Amino acid sequence: MKQIVSEKKSLLQKTTPKTGAPLWQRMWRERWIYLLITPGLIYFVVFQYLPLLGNLIAFQDFSPFLGFFESPWVGLDNFARLFSDPDVGIAISNTLIISLLQIIFAFPIPIALAIMLNNMVSDKARRFLQSILYLPHFISWVIIISIFQQILGGDGFINNLIRGTGGQPLDIMSNPDFFKPLVVIQVVWKDSGWGTIIFLAALTAIDLSLYEAAVIDGANKWRRIWHITLPGIRSTIILLLVLRLGTILNTGFEQIFLQRNAVGAQAAEVLDTFVYFRGVQAGDWGFSTAVGLVKGLVGLILILGANKLARKFGEEGLF
Amino acid sequence: MSEEAKRPTSSFSRRRFIRLAAATAAIIPAGGVILAACGDATSTTGAATTTSAATTTGAATTTRATATTAAAGTTAAAGTTAASGTATTAAAAAGTGVIPGGAPGVPDIYKALPPVFKSTARLPGNGKAVKVTVFSSGQPTVKEKSQNKYWQELEKRLGATWDVTIIPNSSYPEKLAVLSASGDMGDLVLVDLNSTPDQNKLIQQGAYTDLTPYVTGEALKEFPNLAKFAPQLWKNSSIRGKNYGVPRPRFLTSTGTLWRKDWAEKFGNPNPKTPDEFFTMLENFTNKDPDGDGQKNTWGLGDSGISGTNAFSSLAAHSTVMGMFKVPYPWRQNSDGSLTFFIETPEYKTYLAYMNKIWAAGLYYPDTLTQTGDQNRNNFVSGKYGGITDTVTGIPNATGRRAVAKTFNPNADVVMLPPPGVDGSQGYHYGGPGFYAMAMIPSKVGKDPERVKELLRILDFFAAPFGSEEYIFINYGIEGVDHTKQADGSPVVTDLGKNEIGDLPYIMGPQPVLYYPAFPDQGQIVQDAVKTLLSNVYVNPALTAFSQTWVSKQSELTTVVNDAANAIVTGRQPINTLDKLISDWKSRGGDTVAKEFAASIKG
Asked: Which chain A residues are Cβ-neighbours of B574 within 8 angstroms?
């Protein structure tokens, strides 16, 4: 390993002999490159890094009228409030359960879907199917919940059928026990097709000659998927899984909020709705920011941890 | 669709309930006031009315008279003498197609426009630009100024550049926060403290101009149309005794139950009077096929569970059923001056048990908790259920529930249900404060008293009373462009007019009257509804009281009550969890809120 590095170094020295020059000289030499990256740099500083400073209001009783400089500092009060709130436990546990269910059930489906699409013989049919699968992603949650309501709701298609035959209507949409599975099913329906895009791209990168060789060796379809396709996109899968872990405390707001009423807070309060009721609605921006900061920190720790784990198992990971 | 109908059902705040005790309340002079101002009318005949030449802003004004009836002992702001009795107006008595309300707070019906008069004396503006922020009332987006004759004419009449930003209702709280953070809130902001309670905090921090010196006593006379607002309106919209905004007048009623009377008539009891009768009728609606299509596809009651922010859900606080059991909502004042929150009363327990009975019997629309306000209204007008929580202003006009229900079924007869009561007497109605939202002036602008007066003159222009030249222009636009005149002289807004006027004048308006030229029967139906509802109003003792804890905890406490009450009504939790709710409410700040309100009432 060391040898390789030193070899590289010597190579570098050979091709760019003036590495020893002062920094500004080197920068001047590469000025056009620096000029080219400036717009991107400015974008990140202005829209990504400077707003990070706004997180300071997590330590304030922030009032938009008084502004950042006049609002009183309250130390860790907002964080203390978050962790002493009697409802925060339920919100965190619901959030984690829903997120884990989504990772277990909703995460693998786009992979399977992508492999199925990839194995389709007819290009035309595949494109057609792909378009159809992408569509639900562009429908807003309000509409999707309505559609589910139209089918499964108390006045929905199924219950009206039952009522028409004189039966007792089923309680599906407003049953707290069904809430979490329903949320996962809705996510699967909405976003599985969209999720295939990256996997499909990864699939095209697999060398076709591998399949040919496998066919010649007598591998059947399943063997080919198991030994060629899946290992071929393994790094992509792990990459997305690591990223997904980083957002484990985000369940999405609208989908849950719209259905929370029907099943109650015990089953459906997640961190996002919790913040909405405690912070946003009451104009308590300091508190909302504090929760956001905690979520961000937890996400960062999870990403770093998962990344490390991935590297340990010989994967490339994120960085 | 009126904004009241969009307002969260069953919402409450300290200002949403008006004291209507006959002895203490000054009466909002129903629309009739204005007619007296009309010089041509024989404006002296009304027995109960005193018409005085209140030329408040000098000789130039053509507002000749301001007739205000008020309960004995209260002096009306416009300087008229108080008169006891009814709100019969001079013009009403003169018989010019007006059906007087006949009782305090009941609006008059106008069959036709009264003779035109001018209500403002001078050009309101000083030629400068006025930046206005309002939330949308659901009107179509207005056309650009350069292609909008109404807008151009409005600026001419205002004497100011009228820069209006119209924000969708749902994103208004965020928009207000961003505006105040930017330090440039413009000149006029429309604020509904019920849906943006965080603005209370900003008011306390001095973000808005204290208008008290401008709108009390002699100073108010400078604004003749604002001076016509009932004194009670100014009181109800005040915060800790100070007026931070100009209230937009509305009826004194809040939500009740809009009711399919034609369904109820089929079962022989159009107005159920007791809880049992009411329950039986809901059973009939659900099980006995009121729409006669041979299918079991109707329910007794329906509502929207996605109510607005900071509002009690329809299940947690159904206004009609609560009124039926005479729940002291939202506060009961005890003999020692302390306050009890409604959920702590035995009446509320009875209420919850009854609601649970309705739900368990399947008489409530099963998707109530997840449907939006629009879905709810659509389901009601299309005949899915017989009752919906709504205001009287949800009834009239072409877009109102009554007319729309008739497009689905010509026999549909949508009226306000006279409140049933537990002992057969009429149930409570939880009255409103008589206004909806306030026009407020940011403190930055308020440093210049002349500018404040200019802005108030502009609001005064928009508050031009019904029938005035300004009113007709503001609401109907330019004749031949925005409206056409029918044979009987009534203006009808054209499609172009709808897109030109929109919410441009939404910032302020006069006391509403009942004038529905296209629907001759609607005025009477609304008037009867208001009259019935106001005949037994529960007075919120904390209406104008203030509690800092309530301002900061309202959202959390409301959510806690909603969650627990929804669970009890729908049977997810047994009724004895009410005890846990009460202790939860108290420990989370409800106790402090009650104490602060009580202290605020004592003064």
From this structure: none
Residue B392 is part of which domain span?
A: 256-430+542-602
Residues of A in contact with B566 (CB under 8 A): 261, 264
| Domain count along chain B | 2
Tell me how many residue pairs between chain A and chain B have CB atoms under 8 A apart: 105
Q: Is A264 on the interface with B (CB under 8 A)?
A: yes
Residue B11 lies in a domain: no
Nearest to B593, CA basis, from B9, B20, B13: B13
What residues make up the domain containing A52? 2-56
Which positions in chain A touch B370 (Cβ < 8 Å)?
145, 149, 153, 173-174, 258-259, 261-262
What is the percent of chain B with per-residue pLDDT over 70, rounded to a whole number? 83
Residues of B in contact with A86 (CB under 8 A): 584, 588
Pairing of strands B435-440, B188-191: antiparallel
ipTM of the complex: 0.81
B600 vs B424: CA distance, rounded Å: 36
Q: What angle do CA B257, B259, B264 make, to 5 degrees?
A: 135
- Which of A155, A175, A254 is the mutation pick for testing B, counting most B CBs within 10 A? A155
Question: pLDDT-derived band of residue B446, with 50, 70 and 90 as boundaries?
Answer: very high
CB–CB of B196 and A278 under 8 A? no
Which CATH number is B282's domain given?
3.40.190.10
| From B295, B370, B554, residue closest to A173, measured CB to CB | B370
Q: What is the pLDDT of residues B392-430, one digit of tens each?
A: 999 998 889 999 999 999 999 999 999 999 988 999 999
Residue of chain A nearest B379, judged by CA positions: A155
Query: Is the pLDDT confidence value at B76 over 50?
Result: no
CA distances from B26 to A87, A253, B49 (A): 45, 46, 14
- pLDDT tens, position by position, B79-127: 333 333 333 344 444 446 889 988 888 999 999 888 999 998 889 999 9
Q: How far apart are CA B563 and CA B580, in angstroms?
A: 12
Please work out, in degrees rounded to the nearest 5, the angle formed at the alpha carbon of residue B92 by the alpha carbons of B88 and B98.
120
